[in-house]
Amino acid sequence: MKRLLVMLGIVAFVAVLPLSHLAMATQPCPDDDKVLICHVNSANDILTIGSTTYTFGRVIEISENAVPAHLEEHGDSLCYQTLTEEERELIEEFFNISLPNANCVFPALLD
User: Fold this and answer.
1) DSSP β-ladder status, 104-106 and 34-40
2) What is residue 32's DSSP assignment?
3) For the chain, which residues score pLDDT lower than 70?
4) Cα separation of 9 and 69, whole Å?
5) Is the pTM of this model over 0.70?
6) How far apart are CA 59 and CA 61, in angstroms?
């Protein structure tokens, strides 16, 4: 009898476990209102080639509420191209500029 109760308890636990995980999965995630942007590091992280000015920055995650301030006041961008460390180093060497920690650029520089 004791063995039967233990087995029933295990079966009940296993049956209820997926339901509890499903309930947890539907809870709102606190980071749902976050947005990735290319944040301008400094005014020095700008490169002009011909008539196009390229701005380099760092990808950061911000609240949706902070997007307007970043776009208007900081000059950040939602549309950007990510850069690998190797691509950044090639750009630095080719154009003889320093882009410390830059991992994004806008508008797109590389195809």
Assistant:
1) unpaired
2) T
3) 1-32, 43, 111
4) 55
5) no
6) 7
